[in-house]
Amino acid sequence: MAGPGAGLLRALRGARGRGWGSAAGGWAGLRGRPDKYGGVSVELPQCQPRPRRRERAAFGRWLRASVAQWQEEGRVAVWLHVPILQSGLAAVAASQGFAFHHAESGSATLMRWLGEGPSRLPGYATHQLGVAGAVLDENAGKVLVVQDRNKTVNAWKFPGGLSNPGEDIGDTAVREVFEETGIKSEFKSILSIRQQHQHPGAFGKSDMYIICRLEPSSFNINFCQQECLRCEWMDLDELARTKHATPITSNVAKLLLYGYREGFDKIDITMREFPAVYTGRFYKLYHRELPESYRNMT
Ligand SMILES: NC(=O)C1=CN([C@@H]2O[C@H](COP(=O)(O)OP(=O)(O)OC[C@H]3O[C@@H](n4cnc5c(N)ncnc54)[C@H](O)[C@@H]3O)[C@@H](O)[C@H]2O)C=CC1
Ligand SMILES: [Mg+2]
Q1: At 200, phi and psi to the nearest 5?
Q2: Which ligand has an atom closest to residue 169 CA?
Q3: What value does the mean pLDDT of the chain take?
Q4: Model-level pTM?
Q5: Which residue minimizes the CA distance to atom 12 of ligand 1?
Q6: What CATH number is attached to the domain comprising 105?
């Protein structure tokens, strides 16, 4: 058979080459992969075109029989990974008690709890992370501030933005400051963390907003016209007093001024890096200064 339907039919006929006459149709060859929590995970094949009524009906029969089998085996949950072009199968699964757990650009993951009592399956991402940089020129006592082009109230704030997947906090601050203002800088510490729920800019999810202390290594502003209306080096003392700043910016400006005058050790949450035991990667631990005698305690 030629044409775009060939891949789908081949995939659906499965490893054993069973035809559409059998109850499960081509899905008979598809197997679930057990996970360590007692659940089972199924990847539906990537194939085109969209499933028609006959394929959806065969999938529904296969799913019903498979779920009954997994229940008999004592499995507590089913995870179903559905490629976006097969989204019609998500509707079939929904009619059998499945619900969306999360989606990436090319696929959706559905879940169904089979265990006793209410579902104990964990939710997906609950927060987005925004990071801003308070870049302080210590010689001049000036701090870098911007006004957002897309906000109705033009209050001063620190340049910043959303973290990319897999990006460290300090790297987001340095990148966003450079993209929005053209200023190069180095991460020194975390100054504050704001958590806000049901955030309109986070599609109703929670928002974590971290402000870092950065040290500049360049001083000529070349700000992004799309994102910013204005960008300036402002006296830190003035930023701490002005009414034309967002409340978080005002509070952190006061904190930064206190550290500038009395010593950054009073305000800094610094970072140390450690090897992660399980993944073989490194993680970053942020905390207030810990004296050497405590660090090396055994
Ligand atoms: N209190 C403060 O001083 C402020 C804090 N924040 C925090 O900063 C972080 C986000 O910083 P941003 O500078 O906003 O991020 P960002 O610098 O990564 O920019 C986000 C971009 O996405 C665009 N965008 C956002 N939603 C969109 C949508 N629905 N459709 C089309 N385009 C969209 C925006 O116009 C902007 O260009 C958050 O954590 C937020 O809570 C943001 C503004 C003020
Ligand atoms: Mg921004």
Answers
A1: -60, -30
A2: 1
A3: 91
A4: 0.88
A5: 161
A6: 3.40.630.30
